Here is the input.
Amino acid sequence: MGLFRPVWQSEIEEEIRRNGIRLLERRGLDSRAATAALDHTLAQMNSAFPDARLSTRRWRRHLAAMSNHPKDRHVLAAAVGASASHVVTENTRHFPLHARPPGLVVQKAQPFLRDRLDRQPQLVLAAASAMTGRNRRPPHTEELAGQLIASERLPVFGAELLAAVRRRAR
Here is the structure.
């Protein structure tokens, strides 16, 4: 689609899995159900973006040069190894400006997505439609926007996406 190319590596996947399971357990799922849900999510991520997983050789060599927070050096090393323009994370404090390569932007998900919607609304709408269309019983893009509005991290983006969907429908 051309909006962005997600990249992750095995340590990032493991963090997503570990933290996601913990979050789902706090929300009331038992350990087995939480693990199954996260395994499904990771499988979906890798299916939707088959070229997103960065090989170890592409990022590991950059690890020693990273000066950001030690727990997130692997993230910055992956960004460098992939020649990424952005790191999208809710934990921006682990990526201070002085520790980033020149030109690398570190942003939370909501401002990143809002910027994409503002700059390329037709591509974002097409991507959202394609995403919902991959499911067996796909929700419409309006339903996806409603889910984002109800989410903890993307309510403003969800509202803006819904407004864009409704403008397009007129």
User: Anything to note?
Assistant: The mean pLDDT is 93.
